[in-house]
Write the structure tokens for this entry.
Amino acid sequence: QSGLTQVASVSASPGQSITISCTGTIRDVGGYNYVTWYQQHPGTAPRLLIYNVHERPSGISSRFSGSKSGNTASLTVSGLQAEDEADYYCASYTSSYTWVFGGGTKVTVL
Amino acid sequence: EVQLVESGGDLVQPGGSLRLSCVASGFTFRNHWIHWVRQVPGKGLVWVARINEEGREKNYADFAKGRFTISRDNAKNIVYLQMSSLGVEDTAVYYCARDGVAFGYDYWGPGTLVTVSS
């Protein structure tokens, strides 16, 4: 069960947009639309940002959006704000009836 | 208010066992899958196991198979994670999470720390 691949870190200035990619295989990201994204601030539990590749739970800002192409899913954060500085994780259901997370991306707001 | 609260984390010696509990409140517990996810401090999230609404379907990460057992008591709104043959690599914060929307974990507990050390 290899983890999904995410870039380790991304940085940008307030107001800019960033996109975090999450690469898997046909057995997970590419095979199902059960891709989710989580935000985690230090010392806190993760928070669900995106489910079903692009759906936002109630209360999640429209600045967060998700997409998928082939075996790669992406999370875009537009209009970057200071409070967006956090770790971001993707996750996917897999063909083995398990779930797998990405290694996480640390977002720094300059 | 939906709440999940884990407990049972402790310092345990290598080879030892531990049972974690996840107490749920504020929602119809028997209608939801529950997952366990762990995180080594400073590292990433790792999926551990999940149990379906009735407790009949269970799935485990490869590292958990044969050592960890997930179970639930719908009368008490509790999910358990029984862990045995623990190694130092099992040291982590263990979270339980509710599967609320299409395999999205919409509520998480604050986590409980398991430390495996001699």
